[in-house]
User: What shape does this take?
Amino acid sequence: METVRSTNELSSWVESWRLENRTVGFVPTMGALHEGHLELVRHASQLADRVVVSIFVNPTQFGPGEDFARYPRNEDQDSELLQEGGCHLLFLPETSTIYQEGHSTCVEVDTPAKRLEGESRPGHFRGVATVVTQLLNLVRPSVAVFGQKDAQQLAVIRRLVRDLHLPVEIASHPTVREPDGLAMSSRNANLSADERTAAAAIYRALSSARQRIEQGERSAEAIRRGLREVLEGELLIDIEYAEVVEADNFEPIRRLRGSIVMPVAVRIGTTRLIDNFSLEID
Assistant: This one.
């Protein structure tokens, strides 16, 4: 595995692969890698001949008072994991590389970015859309792989790629979970022992909702109430939202049909966690 920090080095490697008629897969990350990230890398290696992984903690997607300063960073450990996981090229840009002096261009997606994360974290998706557009333009992959845990982000990026006619396939990979169902996240490391126990309620709430749907419940409001009831059973959990939305535009629905997502966001102590289940309803 090679490691580069400049856009010129990145372009040189990618262009050399193209001259060899090799396809390029891309996995953008913010580091603090875990098994969930490595599954994305493995998935990308099945879809392309060469895999580029970027590690960049993007300051523009963090709002005031959020955890940018304490977001976990461990470059050496991340590099070692990627070497073992099948990455061919690691891109480690500085902030000044991505946001050059005088940077004044942003990318903003309307639907499906307006609600939920868009409301809870103003400016978040503008930062995500801007940095993803830049990274896709720099790497120019044939396919980029994102995790389904960030379902709204995935919907935003798919809309971005479609609307701007970017020549890349967006592939997704199922959420990778701990044995008790908690979605793997870099932020899990910030949980105390008691908070980690409480966090398992997120998966219980989603599983209970899915079971009710499989048993025939089609009222979105009933599912919302059920999600909140399970989460409210844990005193350490503060609910930001527990919703049922259309998968494509993340707008709320009344009756369950077609492709839906049940996104959840909670705070446990100082840590914010998100998760979701996606379902196809006949």
